[in-house]
Sequence to fold (68 residues):
Amino acid sequence: MAKLLAAGCFLEETANATIQTHGGFGFAEEYDVERTFRETRLYQVAPVSTNLILAYIAEHVLGLPRSY
Fold:
């Protein structure tokens, strides 16, 4: 759950604000903004997908039926 929250917060707030501030240079390899964005996005899919984490929480914490 910590991985889910940390990656989500960074992508939604920090990364988007950084790319917005840098404009087109946010996607240039020379400024490391795109690398940081890419590496942080990786945490949402590896080693465990965000959807699997949410399904686990729904089943074991909220007591909902399996969705997969």
